[in-house]
């Protein structure tokens, strides 16, 4: 009875301890929410009502204004409704006087549909000119899938984007990050816009963009501050990075040119390079040494072959100069049946590598039929003898990671070769295959349980101990720690 009395005698403020927190703490909570949820908090409590307008970092994302669950596909009428709501939100946050400090970073994601940009553009421009916004992250989104985009669609999208920037030049001056989708810039001087007008641009993301007709895109921007360049499904004849002195990271996901897809000249700051491609049947392969011949600062290199043929030509000592500072090498999407000993040659060329990361590709959902072979060709296992190139330098390799491990002969032979060569090796981390929704759809059992025993990840301590025993057999002095992950 006494307990019940205490329960009813709680002070009102005890019932909302969250609202008793300071503004700084509450703002950090609101900053992790989308804008619509942040604004709704004012309905629940007057204590929260003013807080969304005090956020120093603000995200206004058109997708937050779509119905839940999102319609699929997202049609024009859905975009229209989302942009109508986004425009109201932008006016609410950007048009009113701001008594507190400026918005240090505005992340704006919008659709260029109907005439909403005629309202959004002036709002953002005025906020920039008045000092309300210091830094802008802009994404102009297009929901069309690349396969559904024709050249006229991409030219039309480029015209819309160019019109937006031409009407609101202040936006360009404040841009630090820009994301564009489905654009053909054959008739648009995008180089001038990105590297002459966008003086503060540091991060550029392009998805399904090209220069028209498989033309090459040459970048020469000695005054650019660009540090990150990401390309996805961009059908360029070639990417020629002539001069980008601040560039630190480049990621190119999928190209269709059959020969060397990119080249570098002046990129003294380049530290991370990610190349991801599922090679078509006409891909001839290229020499990585040719691509990296003018780079000497790359520390992190990722090559992802997505389960098809290896699109680099195997080299050894030719790579030594470019690999001089390499600290981490990741080889992903390696078809499960491929021999792995060719990787030893890369490790010999880069004795400075500390972490070697491998991901094995095994997808029962992909049927190896004639249709697949016509598009991608036959999967031919790379062949390279370990003795073809051997560096005289001591390896600094301390950790090997394998995702998609199984006690197959190819993997066991490779790991034994690494253990025998890497005197500084401390740890081997063995993980299961990454999950795949399509693989899971074709059967009720987990994918690893549907695979042949020799391709399955060892489950339980007994299987894992047996795998370790097989691995270090005839290596009684092996002190490498072998651990199993997920």
UniProtKB/TrEMBL annotation:
Pfam families: LRR_At1g61320_AtMIF1. InterPro entries: F-box-like_dom_sf (IPR036047), LRR_At1g61320_AtMIF1 (IPR055357), LRR_dom_sf (IPR032675). Residues 170-440 form the At1g61320/AtMIF1 LRR domain. It comes from the Eukaryota. This is At1g61320/AtMIF1 LRR domain-containing protein. It comes from Urochloa decumbens.
């Amino acid at each position: 009875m006494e307990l019940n009395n205490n329960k009813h005698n709680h002070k009102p403020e005890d019932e909302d301890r969250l609202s008793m927190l300071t503004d700084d703490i509450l703002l950090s909570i609101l900053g992790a929410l989308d804008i619509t949820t942040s604004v709704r908090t004012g309905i629940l409590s007057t204590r929260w009502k003013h807080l969304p307008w005090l956020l120093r970092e603000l995200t206004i994302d058109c997708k937050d204004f779509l119905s839940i669950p999102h319609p699929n596909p997202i049609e024009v009428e859905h975009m229209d409704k989302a942009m109508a709501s986004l425009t109201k939100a932008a006016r609410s946050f950007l048009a009113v006087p701001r008594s507190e400090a400026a918005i240090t970073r505005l992340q704006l994601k919008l659709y260029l549909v109907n005439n909403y940009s005629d309202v959004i553009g002036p709002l953002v421009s005025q906020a920039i000119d008045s000092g309300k916004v210091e830094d802008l992250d802009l994404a102009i989104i297009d929901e069309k899938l690349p396969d559904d985009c024709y050249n006229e669609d991409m030219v039309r999208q480029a015209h819309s984007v160019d019109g937006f920037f031409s009407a609101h030049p202040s936006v360009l001056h404040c841009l630090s990050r820009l994301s564009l989708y489905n654009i053909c810039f054959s008739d648009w001087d995008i180089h001038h816009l990105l590297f002459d007008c966008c003086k503060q641009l540091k991060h550029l993301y392009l998805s399904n963009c090209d220069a028209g007709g498989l033309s090459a895109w040459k970048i020469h921007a000695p005054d650019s501050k660009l540090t990150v360049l990401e390309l996805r499904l961009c059908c360029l004849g070639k990417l020629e990075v002539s001069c980008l002195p601040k560039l630190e990271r480049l990621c190119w996901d999928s190209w269709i040119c059959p020969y060397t897809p990119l080249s570098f000249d002046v990129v003294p700051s380049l530290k991370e390079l990610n190349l991801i491609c599922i090679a078509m049947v006409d891909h001839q392969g290229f020499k990585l040494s040719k691509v990296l011949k003018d780079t000497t600062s790359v520390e992190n290199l990722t090559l992802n072959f997505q389960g098809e043929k290896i699109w680099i030509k195997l080299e050894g000592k030719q790579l030594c100069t470019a690999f001089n500072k390499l600290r981490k090498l990741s080889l992903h999407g390696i078809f499960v049946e491929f021999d792995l000993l060719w990787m030893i040659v890369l490790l010999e060329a880069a004795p400075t590598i500390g972490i070697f990361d491998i991901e094995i590709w095994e997808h029962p959902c992909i049927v190896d039929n004639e249709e697949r072979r016509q598009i991608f060709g036959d999967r031919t296992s790379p062949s390279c003898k370990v003795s073809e190139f051997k560096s005289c330098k001591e390896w600094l390799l301390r950790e090997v990671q394998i995702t998609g491990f199984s006690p197959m002969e190819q993997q066991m032979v490779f790991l034994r070769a690494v253990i025998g060569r890497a005197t500084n090796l401390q740890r081997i981390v063995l993980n299961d295959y990454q999950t795949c929704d399509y693989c899971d759809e074709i059967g009720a059992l987990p994918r690893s349980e549907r695979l042949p025993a020799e391709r399955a990840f060892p489950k339980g301590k007994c299987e894992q101990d047996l795998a370790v025993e097989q691995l270090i057999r005839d290596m009684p002095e092996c002190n490498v720690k072998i651990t199993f992950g997920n």
